[in-house]
UniProtKB/TrEMBL annotation:
This is AcrR family transcriptional regulator. The lineage of its organism: Bacteria, Bacillati, Actinomycetota, Actinomycetes, Pseudonocardiales. Pfam families: TetR_N (PF00440). It comes from Actinophytocola algeriensis. One of its GO terms (molecular function) is DNA-binding transcription factor activity. Keywords: DNA-binding, Transcription, Transcription regulation.
Amino acid sequence: MPTGVALREVRRQLFDAAERILLRDGANALTSRAVTTEAGCAKGVLHRHFADFDAFLAELVIDRIDRMDPQAAALRDAAGTGTVAGNLTEALTALFESVAIAIVGLITARDGLRARLRETIPAGVPVLTEGATMIAGYLTAERDLGRIAPDRDPDILAFTLIGTAHLLYAGTDGDRPEDGAVEEIVTTIVGDAVR
């Protein structure tokens, strides 16, 4: 590893390596040695920039949560266009076909990581909670435009959508759900709320 490489570049390289391992091999394969090997750098590089492996993982999760911001903005901007079910299906598919499902498994499997994340994210399951917030923001915008019934609670709909989609994706052992499965759950959950 060349000296003088900016911290941001090292962090990105390590985070991207961890994501590749998560997607390819799962949470159990994620170790500091696996990450540095995948990143092509010495093991000490990770420990030079992070207090320990759980600190690295916590920052990885927060970095991946921050990457959801553009997706949330795009979804809010889609309010009033296309169909509500289509927009939600696309957003849920994009969320759960990313590294999100692997990160949730990682958080579930590591007590130290959960404890670290509680320092910054005191409630909910990281990634899923932010996904629900993204969906609720969109549904609120659609309700304000009159495309969702005024008596429907966007938060309840969002948590129901996120929870159901999570179960759908978590039960596939890394494979995509069957074609139309996400759209079917979206239509079932929000169908009678759409005007």
